[in-house]
Specification:
The protein contains 8 helices and 23 strands. The protein has 467 residues and is α+β, with helices and mostly antiparallel strands.
């Protein structure tokens, strides 16, 4: 046996609350505990898990993991690469800083805030459906491995959002706040939800949904576009974050979640985008949904570049994949969705660096173009190369200023060519760290919590609408 580790969750909790059309729609809480054990032999991995925390059950899981590792060796002749990590924690502990633990607050308090926000979405004649929701996760995790590394963490994540759906004129239009697909999320307490100000933005949200019904269709053709921070964050997620996961690059994810258009030989050579494009992985940011002190292989997290001024310089990696790219150490991005899943490479906070210009200065460079905000739909191929995105909100840009609304705007492109058209990004003041709580990967499937920091971005000569 070369290596073994054990991860235990005791407990792991999830809570979802939602109000739709004036009535509670969802009130659920789930709690689970269990242990997952991995064993690495010369040429094979084994993994087993159990929800029983008794000594006999844990011993049986360990024996099963060892037996599976022996069987796996028959499928591989070459030894599995493995990095030596000298600075792992020894009995350390980390707890999410928070003021209001969402699992300690009363249901009445949390439901009351959502009810208030949802109620303010009413009052527009063509708004036919309204919704407010909050999600919360709490995880007590204990880790130890055969190298003497051990740690424990208590992580708490929360988030919330609202949406209004308007119907009429042969159209259905939705407007979400602070962004789509449930809202915005972070590591922290219920104070993060309070800080979103859902109730203060509800009336504007409903009004925009109704106005979109009467807005003209978005224009088509090649033109300059500006992506708002939330849409640019999703663009980073789909066309940079997933593409730079080293297990995809090496073909380990080809059976389910796809591969990547990148190769190991592209490091330091491939022009991923323009000089305005710099992207890094940073799990050390306070409050990020993709922030944590140590990964699920016991490696301390750190900040490192993936793209520097348009050139590919890094991959998201684990202890068993880093050597295949010539890296001396893991990127500390190996994580599991829980005790019953084996760790695999996941995004942390994958962030696009800001520039020096204000959003207004970016807009001022566009004579005629289109502004995109809040994702509505996305499609991207298995290699993370060809894509098409649509947003809830589009606005014409006329002589450097935001103009009238347009409905159903979409844009498309190919990843390196699209990022090569990045002319400028906005400044730190417009940069926001967004939380994405539903990143899917793996087989069996795992849902990961990841973060993306992004400013606004100006792209030139992009295909808008169908070509």
């Amino acid at each position: 046996m070369r290596f073994a580790d054990v991860r235990g969750n005791a407990p792991r909790r999830f809570e979802a609350i939602a109000v739709r059309d004036g009535e509670p729609e969802r009130l659920s809480r789930h709690e689970e505990s269990g242990i997952g054990i991995r064993v690495l032999r010369r040429c094979g991995w084994g993994f087993a898990a159990t929800s029983s925390l008794t000594r006999p059950a844990v011993r049986e899981a360990a024996r099963t993991a060892l037996r599976l590792a022996r069987l796996a060796e028959a499928t591989r002749k070459r030894p599995i690469p493995w990095t030596e990590e000298a600075h792992g924690p020894r009995g350390e502990r980390y707890e999410t800083p928070l003021r209001k633990d969402p699992f300690e607050l009363s249901l009445e308090e949390k439901l009351g805030r959502l009810r208030e926000a949802e109620a303010r979405l009413h009052g527009r004649a063509q708004v036919r459906s309204t919704r407010a929701q909050s999600l919360a996760w709490s995880e007590e995790r204990h880790y130890a491995n055969s190298e003497g590394v051990s740690y424990s963490v208590h992580l708490v994540h929360v988030g919330a959002g609202i949406e209004a759906t308007a119907v009429g004129e042969g159209e259905v239009q939705r407007r979400s706040y602070p962004t789509s697909f449930g809202g915005d999320f972070a590591q922290g307490g219920w104070e993060f939800v309070e800080g979103l100000g859902l109730e203060d933005h509800a009336e504007e949200c409903a009004r925009t949904a109704e106005e979109l019904l009467h807005a003209p269709a978005a224009p088509t053709g090649r033109m300059d576009i500006v992506l708002a921070s939330d849409q640019l964050a999703l663009q980073v997620h789909e066309s940079v974050g997933h593409a730079t996961e080293l297990d995809r690059v090496l073909g380990y994810e080809a059976g389910f979640a796809g591969t990547s258009f990148l190769s190991v030989g592209d490091l330091g050579e491939l022009p991923y985008g323009s000089p305005a494009m710099s992207v890094e992985s940073d799990a050390t940011l306070p409050g990020g949904l993709g922030s944590f002190p140590w990964d699920d292989e016991g490696v301390p997290t750190h900040r490192y570049p993936l793209v520097e001024k348009g050139t590919l310089v890094g991959f998201l990696s684990s202890r068993s994949t880093a050597p295949e790219a010539g890296f001396p150490q893991s990127g500390a991005t190996c994580r599991a969705a829980g005790w019953s899943r084996t760790p695999l490479i996941r995004m942390t906070n994958v962030n696009l660096a800001p520039g020096e210009r204000s959003p207004e200065e970016l807009l001022s460079e566009v004579k005629e173009g289109l502004y995109f905000e809040t994702n509505r739909s996305w499609s991207i191929d298995d290699r993370r190369l060809n894509f098409q995105f649509g947003t809830e909100v589009g606005r014409r840009i006329v002589k450097g200023e935001l103009g009238p609304l347009v409905r159903n705007p979409i844009y498309s492109g190919m990843t390196p060519q699209f990022w090569g058209r990045l002319a400028a990004v906005s400044d730190r003041g417009s940069w926001h760290l967004w939380g994405i709580p539903n990143c899917g990967k793996g087989q069996p499937g795992q849902v990961g919590l990841v973060g993306h920091g992004a400013p606004w971005g100006l792209f030139t000569d992009v295909q808008v609408g169908l070509p």
